[in-house]
């Protein structure tokens, strides 16, 4: 079968864009003898190869599983529509890149769910694999379908399709799950039903079929309760306690063609100390943990030397919050400078940007600078707990321009809670002040052109944040505020404004806050041809609205309705260890535009460090 499948694939490769996405064989990919492995895992990224190959979590778990001699993890990506057409017309099933074997023959199909707009891709990949979409219709002869990643902090919209969700961090949980499966298979005790029952006893494992959901007459959740004694009342997320000893790959698979983030990446810390009230990642990845400098340097050297990459990124939610960033960068640049490797810090905090930091980053080659003020006025920055001042923003830009930079990218959000027209116009005023700094610098280089890029995303309320209780503003209002900002910047050619597709943001909100009933709409949208919804050129807003209407799904109920504090959220049976009381306190402070200090300055009482037996960083 593999040889026959390979011939089919190769025959049609020149008919599609980027054929190297579909054939495997890249440097550092792992190939094993299928007859000598006990567990086969198809690691599926439900988006294009170019996106999935850039994802650090997939790199970690791929290498981790393959470190076991008798396990084989292969990569699988969502085919672009041109290659999907080839697959369907020529009976090519979804396959693993390493072996070209159909994933239907594997023991596990695992999805990493990074973004709500990939949900229809999950269904499409299951269909391409030749499997029933509904978990209830897949028997013992079908692979176990699992999912993890940030979006499974509210897995309910996907519950009809997934057998098991891994809640929280996956390095240890994945090993325990596969060990259970291997043991049951070898002992002859395996049945999918019994495996799922036993798996539910492993920390962080949520098996939706073991829970029943009841709703009130107003449509809100009445209860989520186990229907099997093996299932816990609440599923608590998994946390890697010793981040300095956690597994990290020595090699990355190196693609044949360029991908979105085509570089070596070292994860320097996990979690965040800041507490921006809109940021889901900042809460669900708590607690804050750092690797020591020696570990970071060694991992960086390994990856650069085994991959040949000439760019290295130090990744995290806020890399500049690393406790001794200057020392770490000093040691890192000793290596990168000698090897002519460009060093990038993609997560830069404005209040941590200094002349010394800039000089370290500029030693090899200047990369563009990106800052995230998020809001145009100080009042709104206080509401969202950004904890930066306009003075700090202007000071950082002054330092950058003084160091030879002539461009800066600024990230903002639109539609934030309590936002007014004054806040929108504040974005334009801030950009103009930054431009004035550049034009008024006496020693700036002549001939350089200033470039200020403003990127505006639309606010989406997300679970496990203080703003989970907030509604999203309407499509019409988002559109009006976008026009207001554009009008305020007319004639400023050196200021460029780009927007996230506001029609995509509406769907994102529905799927982020949805319950199990939303699964019917996801399936109907897929049946109508929806897929690759995160791509503007492929997203079909009208078909999604038809799917919601045909399944009786009220989008206003999920996206544009405020949630009461006492309401049971669809995700409340999952415990991410940030207490609901804390989220409510933070929401109330937001409405009063009162800030909360970072974890290093003062403990805010979220409860997470104590829940895992650690002392808080700041003073109580």
If you had to describe this structure to a student in words, what would you say it looks like?
- The protein is built from 21 helices and 19 strands.
- It has helices spanning 2-12, 49-52, 56-66, 81-89, 119-128, 171-187, 192-199, 280-284, 293-307, 325-338, 355-361, 378-383, 390-402, 421-439, 475-488, 502-513, 518-527, 541-550, 555-559, 580-591, 608-611, and strands at residues 39-45, 71-77, 108-112, 144-148, 164-166, 205-206, 211-215, 221-226, 235-236, 264-267, 269-270, 289-290, 311-315, 342-344, 369-374, 407-414, 451-458, 495-499, 574-575.
- Among the domains are: 2-236, 3-Layer(aba) Sandwich (Rossmann fold), CATH 3.40.50; 581-611, no CATH class.
- Strand 7 and strand 8 form a beta hairpin.
In the CATH scheme, what's the topology name of the domain at 2-236? Rossmann fold
Strand content: 5-15%
Number of strands: 19
The biggest sheet amounts to: 6 strands, mixed
Sheet with most strands: strand arrangement: 2-1-3-4-5-6
CATH architecture of the domain at 2-236: 3-Layer(aba) Sandwich
Brief account:
This protein is α/β, with parallel strands linked by helices and 620 residues long. Helix content is 35%, strand content 14%.
């Amino acid at each position: 079968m593999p040889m026959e499948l390979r011939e089919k694939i190769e025959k049609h490769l020149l008919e599609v864009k980027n054929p190297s996405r579909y054939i495997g064989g890249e440097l550092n990919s792992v190939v094993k003898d299928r007859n000598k492995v006990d567990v086969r895992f198809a690691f599926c990224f439900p988006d294009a190869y170019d996106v999935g190959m850039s994802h650090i979590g997939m790199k970690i778990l791929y290498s981790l599983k393959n470190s076991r001699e008798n396990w084989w993890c292969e990569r699988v990506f969502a085919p672009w529509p041109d290659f999907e057409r080839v697959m369907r017309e020529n009976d090519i099933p979804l396959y693993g890149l390493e072996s070209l074997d159909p994933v239907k023959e594997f023991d596990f199909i695992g999805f990493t769910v990074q973004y709500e707009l990939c949900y229809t891709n999950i269904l499409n990949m299951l269909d391409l694999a030749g499997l029933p979409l509904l978990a209830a219709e897949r028997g013992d002869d079908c692979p176990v379908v699992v999912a993890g990643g940030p979006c499974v902090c509210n897995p309910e919209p996907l519950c009809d399709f997934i057998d098991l969700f891994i809640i929280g961090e996956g390095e240890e949980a994945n090993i325990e799950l596969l060990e259970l499966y291997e043991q049951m298979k070898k002992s002859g005790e395996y049945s999918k039903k019994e495996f799922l029952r036993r798996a539910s006893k492993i920390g962080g494992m949520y098996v939706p079929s073991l829970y029943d959901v009841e709703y009130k007459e107003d449509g809100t959740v009445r209860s989520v309760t186990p229907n099997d004694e093996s299932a816990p009342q609440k599923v608590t997320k998994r946390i890697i306690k010793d981040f300095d000893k956690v597994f990290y790959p020595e090699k990355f698979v190196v693609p044949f063609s360029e991908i979105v983030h085509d570089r070596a990446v070292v994860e320097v810390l996990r979690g965040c100390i800041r507490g921006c009230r809109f940021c889901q990642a900042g809460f669900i990845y708590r607690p804050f943990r750092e690797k020591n400098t020696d570990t970071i340097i060694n991992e960086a050297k390994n990856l650069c030397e085994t991959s040949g990459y000439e760019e290295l990124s130090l990744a995290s939610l806020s890399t500049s919050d690393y406790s001794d960033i200057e020392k770490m960068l000093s040691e890192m640049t000793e290596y990168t400078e000698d090897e002519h490797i460009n060093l990038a810090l993609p997560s830069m905090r404005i209040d941590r940007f200094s002349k010394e930091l800039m000089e370290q980053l500029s030693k090899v080659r200047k990369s563009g600078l990106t800052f995230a003020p998020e809001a145009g006025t100080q009042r709104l920055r206080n509401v969202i707990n950004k904890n930066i001042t306009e003075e700090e923003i202007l000071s950082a830009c002054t330092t950058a321009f003084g160091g030879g930079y002539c461009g800066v990218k600024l990230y903002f959000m639109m539609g934030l809670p309590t936002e007014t027209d004054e806040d929108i116009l504040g974005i334009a005023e801030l950009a103009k002040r930054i431009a004035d700094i550049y034009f008024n610098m006496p020693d700036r280089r002549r001939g350089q052109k200033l470039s200020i890029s403003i990127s505006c995303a639309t606010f989406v309320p997300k679970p496990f944040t203080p703003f989970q209780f907030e509604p999203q503003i309407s499509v019409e209002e988002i559109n009006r505020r976008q026009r207001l900002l554009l009008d305020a910047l007319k004639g400023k050619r050196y200021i460029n404004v780009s927007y996230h597709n506001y029609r995509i943001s509406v769907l994102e909100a529905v799927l982020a806050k949805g319950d199990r009933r939303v699964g019917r709409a996801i399936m109907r949208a897929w049946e109508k041809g929806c897929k690759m919804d995160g791509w503007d050129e492929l997203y079909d807003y009208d078909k999604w609205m038809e799917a919601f209407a045909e399944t009786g799904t009220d989008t206003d109920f999920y996206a544009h309705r405020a949630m009461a504090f006492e309401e049971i959220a669809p995700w409340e049976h999952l415990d991410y260890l940030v207490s609901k009381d804390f989220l409510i306190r933070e929401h109330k402070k937001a409405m009063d535009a009162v800030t909360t200090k970072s974890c290093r300055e003062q403990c805010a009482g979220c409860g997470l460090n104590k829940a895992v037996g650690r002392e808080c960083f700041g003073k109580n």
